[in-house]
Amino acid sequence: MKPSLLIAGAGYLGSEIAALAESEFTVHTLTKSGGDGSHACDLSDDAEVARIATLFPAPDLVIHCASSGRGGPDAYRGVFVRGCRSLLNHFPKSHLVFTSSTSVYHQTDGSEVTENSPTKPERETSQLLLEAEEIVLNRGGTVARLAGLYGPDRSVIWRKFLADEAVIEEDGRRILNQIHVRDAAQACLFLARRKTTGLYNVSDNTPLSQMETFQGLAEILGKALPPCGEKNTSRKRAWTHKSVLNSKLTSLGWQPDYPSFLDAAREFTS
Of 65, 57, 68, which Cα lies nearest the Cα of 10? Predict the structure, then answer.
């Protein structure tokens, strides 16, 4: 009999995890609205999570990769803090992997950050992610701090560069930390199988500065560099400047298929 996996949030990342896992696991998926084979469940509502727990035997593994739906602090508190707590309470024997974000690192000095680096974010949304992380870690779960997700059909950097809407902030030194959605999905499954308690940064091997990124894209696509402008402090993720290291995860044997964003970008054009 296959082991079972519950994916709480079958969106951009969760759908990729489900596709990779279906040959190895019996997969159950949750989305807020349901449909397309997923069970409807609002993770912020404990009663709904309790109802889901009656529908099938407790899974071996649970991956919480739901999004906030672009919501603010209230959505983060519901989906992440209450959602993690409810999943842990109603599936107490299942190992939980929670996908958090590298946005919890507040550094703006270009320094390298590991799982041991300080996390003192100003934004309440990132503070709520830390609260959810603590809940999961205290119950023996795993936290995967994901860098910015992208894929061939979803990359703001790629789209803006093609549309001549990209701007190099100041001198382009700000570091971009990214991870291909397929690599992120593989990393989540890798960590879930190990059932190891702890924090792990999930990013590619090559954090690139904005200038390096756009110089690479200019070479790949034969286009001019974008103009320079002021830094964007109104981003969904707070403005940070840091290099996220994935050495803790790679030391376990995981490696991304796309070591850098530019490796993937070359495939986008093929």
Answer: 65
- Compute the average pLDDT of residues 190-204: 97
Query: Does residue 176 surpass a pLDDT of 70?
Result: yes
Tokens of 37: 């084979």
β-pairing, 168-169 vs 198-202, is unpaired
**Could you give all domains of the chain from N- to C-terminal order, each with its CATH number?**
4-154+179-204+243-257 (3.40.50.720)
How far apart are alpha carbons 188 and 145 in whole angstroms? 10
* 195 CB-side CA count, 13 A: 7
CA pair distance 18, 235, nearest whole angstrom: 29
pLDDT value at residue 269: 82
Q: Please spell the DSSP secondary structure of 98-126, one letter per residue.
A: EEEEGGG----S-EEE-TTS----SSHHH
Q: Could you tell me if 212 and 175 are in contact, meaning their C-beta atoms sit under 8 angstroms apart? A: no
Question: Which among 55, 60, 59, 79 is positioned nearest to 68, based on CA atoms?
Answer: 79
pLDDT per position as a tens digit, 81-115: 999 999 999 999 999 999 999 999 999 999 999 99
Q: How many residues does the chain have?
A: 270
86 and 49 Cβ atoms separated by less than 8 Å: yes
Residue in the structure block whose two tokens are 């803790």 = 248
Going by pLDDT thresholds of 50, 70 and 90, the confidence category of residue 234 is: low
Helix spans in the chain (H): 12-21, 46-52, 73-76, 83-90, 124-138, 156-162, 181-194, 210-221, 247-250, 261-268
The proportion of the chain whose per-residue pLDDT surpasses 90, expressed as a percent, equals 92
